[in-house]
Amino acid sequence: MSFSDEVRKEICSGMTDKDMRFACLYGMLLYCRHLGSERISFQSKSKTASDAFAELFGRIFHRELSCRLSESASGKTLYIYDITEPDLIGEVLAKYHVTDGVRSFDEELVSTPSLGVFAAGVFLSCGSVNDPEKEYHLEFSVPCESLASELVSLLGDIGVNARTTKRRGQTVVYIKGSESIEDTLTFIGAQQCTLELMNVKIYKDVRNKANRIANCDSANIDKVVAAAMKQQEDIRLIAGTVGLDSLSEELREVAELRLESSGMSLSEIGASLSEPISRSGVNHRFRKLAKIADELRNGGSREK
User: Fold this and answer.
1) Average pLDDT for residues 79-101, to the nearest whole number?
2) Domains of the chain by range and CATH?
3) Which of 65, 59, 56 is nearest to 28 (CA)?
4) Average pLDDT over residues 203-222
5) Quick one: which of 109, 98, 118 has its CA closest to 20?
6) 54, 116, 146, 257: which has the fewest C-beta neighbours closer than 10 Å?
7) Which residues pair with 102 in a beta bridge?
């Protein structure tokens, strides 16, 4: 099941009284494909939304609707409810204060506590949300620009910054950002899906931090290995030219330990010396060895 359908199922499970059903169906009708005196047409690729429309319509208008199946341009099943009976269309338009040709949200029809349920109906009619594992994106493909403006305003009242765009001639209201999507899902009654999104976000944040730490550790390990290899190279050069016996006792001891093991850290080398020293002390001795090796590479000589 897609995340969008999880949201739809949770929304539908919360329609528990008459006022909620009325507000939800209002959102579904106002934002459906066609709403006019000649035809009302609700279309959806979601069977969950389709079944919800038929049930809510039956409860409000006491009429059973027939669903017609078609195939969308993307090859998915399209569930369609066409209402063409003049008397029933007139009843629907009158009940929801819709004037033919003009779609606009009538605030007097929906009480403030039911605004979220109305928005839930809008989501069922034309909304979708991406899987949060992939992307934070929620959108509504609305039938006209005036309804897009009203939806942006409604979402703005709960602090959600929604934007509009055009896609293939369709007006789209979209929301980016996990927090804004969480607020929207909570507003429309999908609290469990909000928690699921938050859990996914936490998991992704932890995973990303772990990856950054692992990458950092890997980079540090690479640096340590590269430094150890360079130190061994310097020491072998010294051994092959002037010999390690030419070195002072403190440098020779560090050099021999490094030749024995490239995996020892500076701290481990320091602790293994006959007279233990700090990590910085070991690093200082390796710098001296590197300087001697560089002098030899540049044609210099070192007396034993």
Assistant:
1) 92
2) 3-189 (3.10.28.10), 217-297 (no CATH)
3) 56
4) 79
5) 118
6) 146
7) 99
